[in-house]
Amino acid sequence: MILTGPEITAAVRDGRLRISPFEPEQVNPNSYNVRLGETLMTYTEPVIDAHRLNPTTAHRIGEEGFVLQPGELYLGHTLEEVGSDCLVPLLFGRSSVGRLGLFVEITAPIGDIGFHGQWTLMLSPVRPLRVYRGMKIGQIMFFLSVGPVDLYRGKYQAALGPQPSGYWRDQAQAGAVA
């Protein structure tokens, strides 16, 4: 079952859900709006290698905004830290942002129970698009979990700012990379 807006507010108040900073006006009928943080990250090599740590460059979004370019993958982050030890979060782009031609979090919308931190956003524009820190970029819905809970203890726990892929670490631990 999905939490309604009033239940999201109640869950923040009673501690089942942490959203920091929490702004009541960002509560929707069945989701919570999250805003774009101030840092974007891009990979610097022409080929991204899934079995290696890939170099990145960080870009700060200034007051004038930042123009995203088609054909580039931008890793952004939510301004808010969001997490719960009992609710399952799903993050999607806002429809108003999609209508600007920006794909947000298209391949990995589900969060793990027990993750607490800023969410890394995968941003991909169809056309050049100026974005601004603090703009409402996505919305998170929360679902009730059923059954025993095994809390998230992964590599992205307590993330602040955009996090590049840690897929290569998983492969190295599995022995796929010599």
Keywords:
3 helices, three-stranded antiparallel beta sheet, four-stranded antiparallel beta sheet, 178 residues, mainly beta, Deoxyuridine 5'-Triphosphate Nucleotidohydrolase, Chain A, single chain, 12% helix
Describe the structure.
It is an enzyme of class 3 (hydrolase). This protein has 178 residues and is mainly beta. The chain has one domain (5-45, 53-148): Deoxyuridine 5'-Triphosphate Nucleotidohydrolase, Chain A, CATH 2.70.40. It has 3 helices and 11 strands. A 4-stranded antiparallel beta sheet has the order 1-6-9-8, with no helix packed on it. Strands 2-11-7 form a 3-stranded antiparallel beta sheet. A two-stranded antiparallel ribbon has the order 3-4. The longest helix is centred in the first third of the chain and has 10 residues, at 5-14. It starts with a helix and ends in a 5-residue tail after the last helix.
